[in-house]
Amino acid sequence: MNFLPDTAWVFDDNTTKFNVDGWSQGAFKEFGQGKIVVFGEAAMFTAQITGPQKRKGGMNSEVAPENYQLLLNIIHWLDGKLE
Q: In which region does residue 74 sit, left (phi positive, over 0), alpha (psi from -120 to 50) or beta (all else)?
C-alpha cells in the first residue's frame, strides 16, 4: 500500500492510500558491458531514526531486517561476486 499523508508521519483513517500491487520499487539490468541497478527511493539503504517518536527506519527498521541482505546482494551482483 502507498500512504499519502497530508503531514509527514501523520496517518489516520482519512489518509489517502492505494494499492501498488505490481509496481516496482527497483530494477536491475545488464546494459552494454556493465550493469545497472535503479531504485525509486533510497531510505531502505540508510540507517534512520525519524520523527518525534524516534521511529527506526531504513537499515534500522525492525519490520524489514532483509534490507541489509538486499543491499549486500546488490553490491555483490554489481561487483560480479553474485551472478
A: alpha
